[in-house]
Each structure stands twice: as structure tokens, then as C-alpha cells.
Hints:
Blueprint: H1 4-12, H2 20-36, E1 47-51, H3 56-65, E2 74-76, E3 84-88, E4 94-99, H4 103-106, H5 116-127, H6 130-133, E5 134-139, H7 145-149, E6 155-157, E7 164-166, E8 171-173, E9 176-178, H8 180-183
Parallel strand pairs: 1-2
Antiparallel strand pairs: 1-3, 3-4, 4-5, 6-7, 8-9
Helix pairs in contact: 1-2, 1-3, 2-3, 2-5
Amino acid sequence: MRSLKELLERSSRGHSKLCPRQVLGVRMAMAAVAALGLEVPRSDKRLLVIAETDGCFVDGVEAVTGCTVGHRTLRIEDYGKVAATFVDTSSGAAVRVAPRSGVRHRALSYAPGEAGHYQGQLAGYQVMPEEELLALQRVQLAVSVEAIRGRANVRTLCDSCQEEIINDRQVTRDGRTLCRACASTPYYVPAAGEIPLL
Length: 198
């Protein structure tokens, strides 16, 4: 595994600067893969990460693990938490990692020369002992890895909206095949008319 400094540089490449949440993502991923005994970054699908928020934190996780949404090795379950579960898909072992309660304030004591909370957290998160910064917990997934990932190359049409559904994400209700949006409350509401393409 690369050094913390190299991983932070890698994480910050897509940003104008390094932020505290990127540091947390890098440190959390490093701790999780060590607990699982996995080499990173991965180019296979042995490691699955389920992040509980999006944003800069996830960039830190990606920098360490090599997991991405595009490779279907990174999922977002947006609970609004800077936390993630790391799953060894071969053994089924899973570790959930989150910052310890109160870590934002404790980080400041590790960076006494920094001005302000942001800079104090940025510097403090990099040097805090792992056991003081992070809480690791062995967990079991509530559903199988296969159910989380879905099945590639499975396609069907929604009987309601007629849009294609991929990865075995359809829902069967009263004998009808539906997409999840038509089967429940979607995150969007259709407005009148289609937008003409130029």
C-alpha cells in the first residue's frame, strides 16, 4: 500500500485542495483493508465498498481501494454519514468504519499550531492515532453481495414507463414488471412534455 502522503496526494488530484473528509476517507479505507487483510488498490471485484455519503470522503476511499461506481465495486447508500462498509466478496467478511464520536474537536489537539477548525481537522486527522480517530466494527450484510451488485447483462422493460431496467433491478407487482421508480416513490416528478433535442 502507498504511504498516507501519496494517497492524500492521489485523492486531492481532482480537487483544488485537500480537505478533512478526504483525509478521513483515506484513513478509513487504509484501516478497513488492513483489517480485512486485502492488498490495494484492487483491479478485480474482490473488494466492495458501500459508502454512506457522497462527496470528498468517497474520493479518499477511491484513492486507497481503487473501487469505483463505474466498476460496480463502490456503492452509495446515502445515510448522510461519513462511514463505509468494506466487504471481502471472497470470504464474506465485512468491516464498517466510521469516525469516533467527537473526533472533530479532538483533532484540534493534534494540530495546536493551526488556525481554525478546518485547518486543525485537516492536520489533526493525518496524525491522530487510528484507535482514537476511527471505530471499526465487524458487520454482516443484510442482503447478499449478489443482491447488492445485481446481475450484469440482465435487461427487461418496465410495463409502466417502458424504460429499460438493467442489472436485475426490476420489481414484480401483481404480475407486472416495474422499475423501482414506478413501483414506489421516485426521487423525481415528471413535468409536462419532453424536451426537444437540438
